[in-house]
Amino acid sequence: MDYSCVFPQQLDKNNSRNTSDAVKMALSISTLSLLILLPHALTSTSHLAVISPQDPALPIGSSLTVLCAVSAELGLAASSLYWTLNGRRLARSTYTVLSPTELSVTLHRLNGSQQQSGDNLVCHSDNGDVLAGSCIYVGMPPEKPDNLSCWSRNTKDLSCRWSPGGQGETYISTKYILKYKLRWYGKEKECQDYNVGQPYTCYIPRDLAIFTPYEIWVEASNQLGSATSDVIILDILDVVTTDPPPDVHVTRLGELDDQLSVRWASPPALKDFLFQAKYQIRYRLEDSAEWKVVDDVGNQTSCRLAGLKPGTVYFVQVRCNPVGIYGSKKTGIWSDWSHPTAASTPNSKRLQTGSCDPKSEEHNSTLRQELKQFFGWVRKHTYGCTNVSIKLYDQWRVWLQKAHKTRNLVLQSGKS
Amino acid sequence: MVGCVQVEDRAVTLSNERNSIERTYELTKYLDHQLKEIKDTYLLYLGPPFSDPDFSPPRPNISSLAVPSAATRVDLWRGLENGARLAQNQRAYSVLLCAVRELARSTLCPYLQSSLLHFCSGLSGLLGSISGLMNALGYTPPLPTDGHAPLTTPALSPRPALNDFTRKVEGFWVLRELQSWLWRSAKDFTRLKKRLRA
């Protein structure tokens, strides 16, 4: 199945809806009131002209000569005809009149087709009527598909994805077939469900064997060639993933303002086939893109996150890896992350105290500077004041603060 | 007394029919709306000149377009009996449903293909609605409504298109006919409703 093609764009809806009801009404009334007697010739294309070649497929850069042979009974001269490619008229210099009813055109250095349904090369009569057309497919053969990987959900099914290889764009319709077979038993099977959600994917829903390896590969083909990916060999049990853990709850731990408790349930499939599961948690701040991962959760279904910021909203997700499937020691593939659960840590309980420290640091630094200079001068120019220094000043300040506090306490206790 | 009971029954029946017609009318409008989107995407898929606004290639003379023409003379249209009116609609959509299915099948683009198939189920519903109406109003039993109606002109058996360009032209016309018919059906059902009120 190929995938790349037209996607619905924001088409100019106004234009297409300008056939407003009023216009439609007028149109249909005039159509209804018209006596329609269409000449038979205008309702049939089958014998107006014949183009060859029809629907050619060519590699990019090729040249092509196309012939339009118009029906003699139309009475049109070949020299009066013209060609368009994708609606654009082609230069007369590229035409060659081969006979009174045959006109050819030569195209050089063709680019990849504009649409997957093929480029439209049309032969017109001089008044613009369409006489005949041919679809031209210009592209490249497919490259070898690569990056083939597969995973199984709960050992029941197998999903595979691959890349188209090379540039990825072949310009023409390219089909991919995913094939698989049990390694030591010859029968080859084809995957049927393609592009489930994403391009270059296929889904095998059932009838898969375990405890025995599969060979899997992708074959790409189009009108210009084909290519096959490398074969991968895997045992379903080696590529198992499961659903994300359900019922993830994140709650506060009492008054603790830097911790949150995360709890979840084990995925339901666990009891069907898994021996145990291991989990991983990740969390981030509400407005941050950086996740922090907690790796050593083991197989518990709860965990305590510590070292968090108080009064902050966190988003938390959990995922699961099935390990030890049917007794093997191997790990499987991590599940998707659970839907984010949000919770907030409590606000910090510590009082927002006004700082006891001197507030106006700037004042002090000018004062201190001056004092230092003063004490320096005193030490030099006086006798007996050798101990005077800025340290003394600081000690005095400390003493002052203590004295201030005591006074306040006395005052307060005095009040009560 | 018996006469009064009969009249009452008839009124109830007609009221049911009018509701059915109203629903069918609504379905027609809905499909018309859906078709606009699909048609725009499909024309882009076909590429220019099909996607150019004034483009109109000659209409192919093939079985998948062997529908009664939506366009008709005003006097003929007005004069249509209820049964004949419904029958024309039914015949048109039978043929067009087949044609759109074929269109879907040959579309390379998976997204477009699923849109077309989804549209087909809507069309199929419309067909069923019309057949149901015909039954309820006591008209000729309808043709099989699964969209694979046996063609009344066996000579025009479906054949694959000669080439891809011709197939594009056919697809272009199928969607154009479908659009004409959805416009016309809306008027047909409005007229039917009026007539049943009388």
TrEMBL record, chain A:
This is Cytokine receptor-like factor 1. Residues 337-364 are annotated as: Disordered. Belongs to the type I cytokine receptor family. Type 3 subfamily. SUPFAM superfamilies: Fibronectin type III (SSF49265), Immunoglobulin (SSF48726). Residues 39-128 form the Ig-like domain. Residues 341-355 have a biased composition (Polar residues). Residues 144-239, 244-348 form the Fibronectin type-III domain. GO terms for biological process: negative regulation of neuron apoptotic process. The lineage of its organism: Eukaryota, Metazoa, Chordata, Craniata, Vertebrata. It comes from the Eukaryota. GO terms for molecular function: cytokine receptor activity. It is a single-pass type I membrane protein. It is found in: Membrane; Secreted. GO terms for cellular component: CRLF-CLCF1 complex; external side of plasma membrane. It comes from Electrophorus electricus (Electric eel). It holds the Pfam family EpoR_lig-bind.
